[in-house]
Amino acid sequence: MSQSDGSAPDTAAWTALAEAARHDPDILALVTGESGRRAALVHDLAGIHVDFSKLAVTTATVALLAALAAARNFDAARADLFAGAIVNPSEARAATHPAERGVGGAAVAAAAPGQARLRAVATALRGDPSVRDVVHIGIGGSALGPALLLDALGSGGDGPRVHVVANIDGVALERVLARCVPASTRLVIVSKTFTTLETMTNAASALAWAAAGGVADPRANCIAVTAAPAAAAAFGIDPTGILPFAETVGGRYSLWSAVGLPLAIRCGVAAFEALQTGAAAVDLHFRDAPFASNVPALAGALDVWAATFQRRPTRGVFAYDERLRLLPAYLQQLEMESNGKRVTAHGDPIGYPTAPVTWGGTGTDAQHAVFQLLHQGSHADPIEFVMVREPGHALAATHHRQLLGNALAQGAALLKGRTFAAALAITNGDEACARARTFPGNRPSATILLDRLDARTLGSLLAFYEHRTFTAATLLGVNPFDQWGVELGKEMANALEAGGIFDPSTTALMERVGL
């Protein structure tokens, strides 16, 4: 696409959106009075209720975003994704993670052997009375996704305990191994290339721990999950213990492949299949629904509206359910690694903001920490509340009622705020105190409400976020499937390990820590 000044696409839709962003709308007035608002911004999809009506956007702007999607050839990009065409040009690859859950043409058949191996290995481990613990070693998408699945669903599982280790800091591995017995522990080593420095270092230490604990052949107790099965075999893993997945499945999209083995081990194959079923339902909706009624597409377009056009540089995600406490961290990788780019998919410089900084926490804990800034600070960036209608515990109903009530109250408070006059009335006319208790309001928020938190609905939620991210990338013109910034960090770490020469500051710090 041609660009008029090297900074913004030269399209009527882009220009119209930039003009619309010059004026902040009165969100409360829109919520109470805009015709057709709920029909445009409130939707249900696969056990998920999304309410974007409190965001700082008009229905006219939503129509402009649809026009931008057309100008960016969204329909063609979406079709390419599901057809297995190259959508990652810098690596000349397709992105076939939907095929791992049964959607995506010929790639579905290619994924089948790996899926079958996953099920067979999980069933064998669950049926082996000698296996008490499984230590899953990976990093990035090889750990964040599995950890989220286990934290959200694992308490209801009846299989072996599964522990996820990612950090190269030995404390992380040491703490997990302290809870395990070598003879009854199996190791799962997850690395796409089977060369990832942190993962292979942790694996070597875990194997040494097993050997020191009396395991005669520690590698016989290992399972490898990788897109490089030959490298895993060279490492000493028996071919029957190697679970392959395609190179076209990116790390942050890989939990649907054998990388999701921890869920199948802990909760059973049926739970893993339900996760995939929920995701597939969203896949089909995203693939087939027109942009105007496509829920993930709408969400991605609204993210672009806020970050790129309104220049709101962050998006806070707050999970009002303890089982989803790892969701913000999972989304940080999904969104920022995908769309944190400064050039287009064709390598042209970008002169406008792309992905916002994704951050967040858990309600209600966050209310007693960061919410001060949200209500009264100088930032007015969009906030997303994620809730579950059914509680995940058997305690008194007051727990869940207060939890959901707090989430809804926060969104209402961000919207309404408190005027100086209202603050004066509750401070007996003390103007200084009233100013401290005045809130500007008109702060945008969205609500995502799950009917319940089970494997199927969690699968729907995660696929919703994936396609939301893809949509944003398409409208921004970036490649969401490479991560060269991450690769640069790996290169530098390897160079340091090999004794490379660095800048004076880094060299001095290396000397300080004894490297």
Summarize this structure as a short list of keywords or feature phrases.
515 residues, 6-stranded mixed beta sheet
Tally of domains: 2
User: What is the structural class?
Assistant: alpha/beta
Low-confidence segments: 1-6
The number of E-state strands comes to: 11
- Span of the ends, CA to CA: 48 Å
Strand order of the largest sheet: 1-2-11-10-8-9
What does this structure look like?
This protein has 515 residues and is of the alpha/beta class. It has a six-stranded mixed beta sheet, with helices on both faces. Strands 4-3-5-6-7 form a five-stranded parallel beta sheet, sandwiched between helices. The longest helix has 22 residues. The chain is globular.
